[in-house]
Amino acid sequence: MLLMSLCECQPPTTVHITNCLSNKQWLNLHCKSKNDDLGSKELSPTNSYHFSFHPGKLHWFDIYKAQRDIACTDCFWSIKDNGPCKLLITQPNCSAGDKYVECNNWNPSE
């Protein structure tokens, strides 16, 4: 399965984490989201860690599904605002008009 996504992104957000634990304890943290894993980090006392990301609405679609696309040997898609459209013609084209086999909505956000 190959996923394709489109992000309606906003300016970056930066998160800063500082180890202010008492007794000079080390802080172990693990930063991850549904789609990204920044891994485990160890912060010594008074040290900081930061990361940035672009929050926003994520659109996604399974661009190839064997059950749906098994007859497709060269698959061409046009990505529109409301979702991807599989092309009947065999070349990349943003103005294919009615030459679409099917247009799909984005998969629901989870």
Automatic annotation (TrEMBL):
InterPro entries linked: Self-incomp_S1
One Pfam entry name: Self-incomp_S1
GO cellular component, one term: extracellular region
Record flagged with keyword Signal: yes
Subcellular localization(s) per the UniProt record: Secreted
Claim: Secreted is one of the keywords in the record: yes
GO biological process, one term: rejection of self pollen
Alphabetic keyword roster: Secreted, Self-incompatibility, Signal
Homology family: Belongs to the plant self-incompatibility (S1) protein family.
PANTHER family listed in its UniProt record: PTHR31232, S-PROTEIN HOMOLOG
Protein name: S-protein homolog
